[in-house]
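Exercise: predict the fold of this chain.
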Amino acid sequence: MQQEKAERITITLPRDMLSSIKQKVSSGSYGSTSELIREAMRLWQKKEEEHEIRLALIRNRLEKSKNNGEPVPIEEAFSRIEELHKRKLKGEIDG
């Protein structure tokens, strides 16, 4: 794997975080604090990417829903939901 050019930065961490980092490095789980921080950043980046994908999917579903069929007044929607719930409780429908 080709190493990207790195830039040195200084960060300030709470003592408990720093203690956890030092413990992982001294146990041999990571070769250095930099290695651990890089791994943490990769996980954070992946989490952010996944979050953006989920938001895009939600936006897409909302857009499809908005353009699908005629709008239903809120009172009617709740009435339909209540009726479905009652039927489910009576065992008339599955799920």
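Check your answer against the key: The two ends are 50 Å apart (CA to CA).
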